[in-house]
Structures are given as structure tokens and as C-alpha cells.
Amino acid sequence: MKKPEILAPVGHYEGLHSVIKAGADAVYMGVGKINQRALKSNFTIEDVKEIRKITQDAGVRQYVVLNSIVFEEDLPYINEILHQLKEIGVDAVVGWDMAVLSKSIELGIETHLSTMASVSNSQAAKFYEKMGIKRVVPAREVKLEGLLDIKNKTNLEIEIFIHGAMCMAVSGRCFLSHDVFEKSGNRGECYQVCRHEFDVKIVSKNTGTEFLLGSDYVLSARDLVTINFVDRLIWADSWKIEGRNKNADYAYMVTYAYREARDRILNGEWDKKGWKDLWDMLERVYHREWDSGFYFGEGRFGLNRSIAKEKKLYVGEIIKYYPKISVAELKVVDNPVSIGDTIHIIGKKTGLIRQTVRSMQVEKKNIQQADRGMVVGLKTDDKVRPGDKVYLIKQVDISDNINNNHGLITK
After folding, report:
1. Distance between CA atoms of residues 142 and 136, nearest Å
2. Cα(88)–Cα(9) distance, rounded to whole angstroms?
3. Other beta carbons less than 10 A from residue 366's beta carbon
4. Residue 112 maps to a domain
5. How many CA atoms lie within 13 A of 98 on its CB side?
């Protein structure tokens, strides 16, 4: 059976180390100003070099995204960046502007076509295949049957979205942010105007009378989730997780859940173990209400709230670590933490460690709770570093469950 790649988003070093720990096969990241997350999640060319070493050591592939609109004045910059990426030896470049694609192919870099190109049929895919494109990310609007047609009628690798935010615009090409804030979403500067609450009203054409219907998030699409039918996507070459702007908690949990799902399918354990425990894991982190996207037809893209099954409270910071005994000194500066609590330890090189507090000491005496202002010895499950942040994880009571997520396909 085919083994799809788990492709995870990286917008910061904490996220990078988190997804590697969670089992990602490949990561994608932006560099400089020509990518769809240039406003927030971005790296310099020096970061790309450093991350190249990290990913090579971990056996993880590194893809660099250059997928925004390229104007004439950007061409020298694009050429320079691509030559640098060639020298660094990244595994692939992802783009959709012909200037990026043609130069990347000319330099002999493996080149992937972004979903921004809106490839929605096999004939369009064949056009890019003849150019030298190796992988296509089809338009999000393509149904499952259409994706299979592209796969079966070409020799291209097919990368599909399996989880994360969805955009109201066709394949992400939107002018709303530019119109309101003069910040173009097509240049990686989206201010996500669509995520705000809007007043909805009806205006009479005859009298001009306005009828206020109320406030709602009418333009904010739900989040894609496929964990409950991901076994039907096992044919794909790559499973892509959306979320370069997300924190390390999100990156780790989502990557781990889909890696576990894939392994269950490949090991013949899917029917026995199922997906509901993985669904529960995904509910722990921040997300909007969920939807099946376009896989089985048009989804329901309205949103009325954002939810998470867990919340994260700041505890303090690691100030020392003693590797021989796996104990860290934790300075508690905010919320107290007790034996039995679940905590996250997050750092630039540490990534994310999720563990239960099993032992704390002050002056070699065991304590049950560490309060604000205390410095305590904390037994850790893995190596941590000075400067790492510690968070207390608390459960949140959610009324919605699996059966209340409208627009979802369940088997």
C-alpha cells in the first residue's frame, strides 16, 4: 500500500522541532517576501541554511515556498533567491508564477506547483508536467473523483490538503485585505479581514430602508478536517497540513494525529483502532468549526465560533537543566502547577514536550504544588533548555462533539 508523505507547516523554530518530533516526513516554509505568509511566518536565507542541516540530520525533506504574485521589479530578487536555494540544496521549491517555475526548473531544482495555480483537471496538470513540474497541489475546490483523475491520467505526484484553515476565495486568491487595508493577500500580507464579525443587513431597493439581521462571521470559512475519512486519501503522494502561522502545540498535535492515522492504515489497524481518539487529540488545540471541504461536494463554510478542547496557561521559564538526572529548574512567574498536571514545555530548539508533572522539589524536599515566585526542580521526560517556556494545560468543556459538526462526512 502507498505511503503518503506527512507534510507539515513550519513558521518558526519551535514548530520545526515539534513537527519533526511528531513524525513529519517533510516540512514547508517561506523565505523572504515572495510567499503567502510573508507578513507573519517567515525565514531568512540564513535560516534556510540552518534548517537544511536540521532536516537533513532528522531525515526530513525541506520545501521552500515562493508562491505569491511576482512583479517585474521582483525578478532580480527571485533569481537571487533561487540561486541561493540551489546552492543550499533544498529538496524542492513550491511556486505558481511562471517566473519562479521556469527559473527553478532551469536550475535543476525539484519544482512543485502551488494550489494558487488552480489546477482542477488532468489536462491542465499535463501542461505543467511537460514544463518539468514534478508535483501538483490541485485547487482546493476539486472533488475526490477529480483528484483521482489527475492522479491516474498523469505521472505527477499529487499533494492534497488534509487539515487546517480554508479560505473563502478561490484557491486563496483574494482582494479583500488589499481593498480594506491595502495589504495584498496575494503578496503574503493578508490581514484576514474575513475572520472578523460582520453586521448583516438587508437594504430595500425601493425605499432604502435597512433591516439589520444581526452579526455573524459570514466570510470566515471553517477548518478542514479529514481524520475521519483519511483512509480514503491513502493514494495521495503527500498529505499537506495547513498552518504556518500556528503555534508549536498545534503543529505537534496535528502532525502526530495524521502520522498515527497513516501508520494505522498501513499496518492494517485502521478498522480496529479507528479515528475517534485522534479526533479527540485534534480537538485539544485551537480550531474553527470543522468541515470536510470539497472532497464530497461543496462544504458548509459558515462559522459561528472558534473552539479548542484545551487551553494553555503560562507557568514560567526553565532557567537551568541537569541532563544527568533529567531535572530542570523552573521559575514559576504566573499560574501555579501541581503534581499530576499536564504541561507543555516549548522552546526554539526543544520544540514541544507534553508531559505529566510527576515530581517537583525545593531544596531536595518533594512538594505537591509550585506557586508564583518559586524556583523548583522539575523532572522532565526529555531534554529542555534555559529559556524554554512552560505552560499548564487545562481541559475546556465543549458542548459540540463529533455528531454536532455539520458539513462533515463520516463513514
Report:
1. 13
2. 20
3. 10
4. yes
5. 4
Question: 217-230 burial, b for 16+ CB within 10 Å, e for fewer?
Answer: bbbbbbbbbbbbbb
pTM over 0.90: no
234 and 356, same domain (yes or no): no
Q: What angle do CA 38, 287, 65 make, to 5 degrees?
A: 25
Surface-to-core class of residue 401, CB atoms within 10 Å of its CB (0-12 exposed, 13-18 middle, 19+ buried): exposed
* Same domain, yes or no: 342 and 234: no
Report whether pLDDT(174) > 90.
no
Write out pLDDT tens, residues 179-199.
665 665 555 566 566 666 666
If asked whether residues 159 and 177 sit together in one domain, one would say no
Is the domain of 194 the same as that of 278?
no
| Whether residue 259 sits in one domain with residue 236 | yes
Domain span at residue 356? 310-395
Q: How confident is the model at residue 204 (pLDDT cuts 50, 70, 90)?
A: low
Looking at the fold, whether 381 and 241 belong to one and the same domain comes out as no
Phi, psi of 403 (to 5 degrees): -75, -15
Residue type, 203: V
The Cα–Cα gap between 147 and 237 comes to 12
Helix axes 13-22, 248-266, angle to 10 degrees: 20
- Do both 152 and 35 map to the same domain? yes
Section 270-298 average pLDDT: 85
Residue 271: is it exposed, middle or buried by C-beta count within 10 angstroms (0-12/13-18/19+)? exposed
DSSP calls for 47-105: HHHHHHHHHHHHT-EEEEEE-S---GGGHHHHHHHHHHHHHHT-SEEEE-SHHHHHHHH
